[in-house]
Amino acid sequence: MLAPLVNLLIVVASVLLHRWLWVRLVRDTTRSGGRARRAGTVATVASAALAAAPRILVPALGPDTGRPLAWTGYVWLGVLLYLILVLLVLEIPRAFVGTRTLVRRRNSTERPVAVPEPAKVPATTVSRETTTVSRETGQAPPGADPAPREGGDTIGNRRGSGPAHPDRRLFLSRVGAIAAGGIAVATTGIGMRTALGDPVIRRVPVRIAGLAQPLSGLRIAVVSDLHLGPLLGRGHTERIVRMINGLEADVVTVVGDLADGKPSQLASAARPLRHLESTHGAFFVTGNHEYMFDGADAWVDELHGLGVTTLLNERTEIRHHGAVLDLAGVEDLSATEHGRGPDYERALGGRDTGRPVVLMAHQPVMIEEAARHGVDLQLSGHTHGGQMFPLTELTKLANPVVAGLGKVDNTQLYVTSGAGFFGPPVRVGADPEITVIELRP
């Protein structure tokens, strides 16, 4: 129901941003009426359409049909983000230069100019020939002040207080545009290499008070946000499974946002999950993207067939060397829009409080309820670690922990940056990762 409104906002935002980009990259760098300006205007309109198209059209086209548009559009979105950021930074020196020019003009028009009073010379000693311009040569005699020429220098512009020369402004604007474009393309390229490369393996020890000795050293593999879809397919899943299997984990947890589509579209991409290896099995909880595409229940069934257990507001016992760990999972917050949602009492109520409990919950903000229910450790994803700087910093405003280990009250929270990406296939300042949590007393 909100989709049409969201799509409208995307179109409006794209138009407004590209209007500003046209000013800085086309109007300021080309001459009016020239071919370059016409070509730049056409390119700007095409860019505005391309920036809005992936979010609006790809879901309707499906992962396979929409793949070329998704690659083109999302890569271009990455370039646009950094192009806009660099141009915004360049607004600072632009404003500084503009302010200095304005001050110079104001000073030149307001400062009185002293004109020396001519010396008094006896009229009898001055001949007409020496005080007038020669009719024959059209020149004043030596020592006389020349008459001002039309279009000639004035006192103000001899001081350099006039506006910058148009050619100079054009040159500086072109240099700025080229620099911004180069930085944006280079940053996007580096970010794509990171996003599409192998995830980093992180090993994180977590101490739980009162942990039974047999559970010491229990290894929990944590992965989230695979985002299977038009850009990430079966090969991505195979790589993740291969890397997890090399960790010799006791438990595997997939903490939501498996796919950007339905199993009818992406079942083949998810199929390698059947080969996950661990001592006590693999477990899954839903993320917001499972509900975004109305495929949550279908994915639960699909994963069950692949040997992955979904914890929908429920828990299971992990029996390890004679001791027991409770592993619980709750539905994502976005499920409330579908008449569902996280039920902490159902997942955590009535348990033996002498046992340690680990909760799988997709979004870090769910830690508040987890803490109220006495959870020892919550495993989350969702943030992608911010994915692209400076969004890495903005993400901190909405989440208690963006990436890594934190604590709320007596409950520890580990947030993984995820193994995939959403939108642009770019990661800057937030590597993809797979984490091994090792429990210790």
Account of the protein in words:
The chain is α/β, with parallel strands linked by helices. It folds into two domains: 3-102 and 166-191, no CATH class; 200-440, Purple Acid Phosphatase, chain A, domain 2 (4-Layer Sandwich). 41% of the residues lie in helices and 15% in strands. The protein has helices at 3-25, 35-61, 67-110, 128-131, 155-158, 166-196, 234-245, 263-270, 288-292, 296-305, 344-348, 367-372, 391-394; strands at 200-207, 219-223, 251-255, 282-285, 308-310, 314-320, 323-329, 357-360, 377-380, 404-408, 411-415, 433-440. Helix 11 links the parallel strand 7 (323-329) and strand 8. Helix 1 packs antiparallel against helix 2, helix 2 (35-61) packs antiparallel against helix 3 and helix 3 packs antiparallel against helix 6 (166-196). The longest helix has 44 residues, at 67-110. The protein is elongated and about 110 Å long.
List the helices and strands and how they pair.
Layout: H1 3-25, H2 35-61, H3 67-110, H4 128-131, H5 155-158, H6 166-196, E1 200-207, E2 219-223, H7 234-245, E3 251-255, H8 263-270, E4 282-285, H9 288-292, H10 296-305, E5 308-310, E6 314-320, E7 323-329, H11 344-348, E8 357-360, H12 367-372, E9 377-380, H13 391-394, E10 404-408, E11 411-415, E12 433-440
Parallel strand pairs: 1-12, 2-3, 3-4, 4-5, 7-8, 8-9, 9-11
Antiparallel strand pairs: 2-12, 6-7, 10-11
